[in-house]
Specification:
Layout: H1 29-53, E1 57-64, H2 70-77, E2 86-90, H3 96-99, H4 105-108, E3 117-121, H5 130-133, H6 139-142, H7 145-158, E4 161-169, H8 172-184, H9 194-201, H10 203-216, E5 224-228, H11 232-249
Parallel strand pairs: 1-3, 1-4, 2-3, 4-5
Helix pairs in contact: 1-11, 2-11
The protein binds adenosine-5'-triphosphate (ATP) and magnesium ion.
Length: 267
């Protein structure tokens, strides 16, 4: 699963990453559904031990361009997981109170506690993406944020948080197809947002901003994965594989029972 992992301090050129890649799975869409179902079962079991053990915290970050598939990925990958053990935080444009604070203030509050999985649908990375592309803050402000983010994530990791970050990579044509679908399919009209079209015009600026994010903030403790996302089924599968493998590597166990349980008789 190291296939899509960004090595720390490597320079990412997104034109060299193929959003249509399917090379890490030896099968087609039909077969992927069987595998995904199996991984869903595994995740369900792992989440239960995570919760029971109450030791680890897990943070999963999703970033993508509009229509990149963050919502669909979250829906598929976490299907069937006990809703009590997982929190999804969707970060929209900051409210006035949030803007009055540092950019990590609203983020920190949504990080996972022990035994929990927190899923970020967009994240603090917007503060070096949209904030940079739209010049919402000066360069001397956003340019320092990569270090701030690395320090913040290192602190979370040192305090027991396992961090995974996924950039779902679609190409510009695929985005066009998906936005078109939102215009044509009545059940998707609600998802259509005119602002997505103006954002689309800034595609190249976003790519440059993403390349900096991926080059500067993929660390041992908080790695980025660049997931080929033009094929939904492949994207879901890859995210699921990485997540399940990472949780398995934590070698979690149910807590030891207290002494004398075998002597208890329930009347
Ligand atoms: P979809 O991919 O389906 O369009 P979405 O995640 O784009 O879903 P929206 O409600 O359309 O959801 O958009 C959220 C908006 O909030 C995005 O345009 C994003 O750039 C913006 N946003 C998030 N965080 C920040 C931030 N820190 N500063 C400014 N804008 C932000
Ligand atoms: Mg949007």
């Amino acid at each position: 699963m190291d296939h899509y992992r960004v090595k720390p301090a490597s320079k990412v050129d997104l034109s060299k990453w193929d959003p249509k890649d399917k090379s890490a799975f030896d099968g087609d869409k039909e077969l992927s559904k069987v595998r995904l179902k199996y991984l869903n079962h595994k995740l369900r079991a792992l989440q239960e031990v995570l919760y029971a053990e109450g030791k680890h915290k897990v943070l999963v970050v999703f970033q993508a361009m509009d229509a990149g598939g963050k919502d669909g990925t979250i829906r598929s990958v976490f299907k069937g997981v006990n809703p009590q053990g997982i929190h999804v935080a969707s970060f929209k444009a900051p409210a006035p109170e949030e803007l009055a604070h540092d950019f990590l203030w609203r983020i920190h509050k949504r990080t996972p506690g022990r035994g929990e999985i927190a899923v970020f649908n967009r994240s603090h990375y917007e503060d070096v993406l949209v904030a940079r592309v739209h010049k919402l803050v000066a360069e001397k402000v956003w340019s320092k944020r990569y270090d701030h983010i690395n320090c913040f994530e290192a602190m979370l990791a040192d305090e027991g948080t396992t961090i995974l970050k996924f950039y779902l990579q679609i190409d510009k044509d695929e985005q066009k197809k998906r936005l078109q679908e939102r215009l044509e399919n009545p059940t998707k009209h609600w998802k259509f947002n005119r602002a997505d079209l103006s954002e689309r015009k800034l595609w190249d600026d976003y790519m440059a901003a993403y390349e900096d994010v991926l080059s500067k903030t993929s660390t041992e403790q908080a790695p980025w994965y660049i997931i080929p996302a033009d094929h939904n089924w492949y994207r879901n599968l890859m995210v699921s594989e990485v997540l399940v493998k990472t949780l398995e590597d934590l070698q979690m166990a149910y807590p030891e029972p207290e002494a004398g349980l075998d002597k208890i008789e329930i009347e």
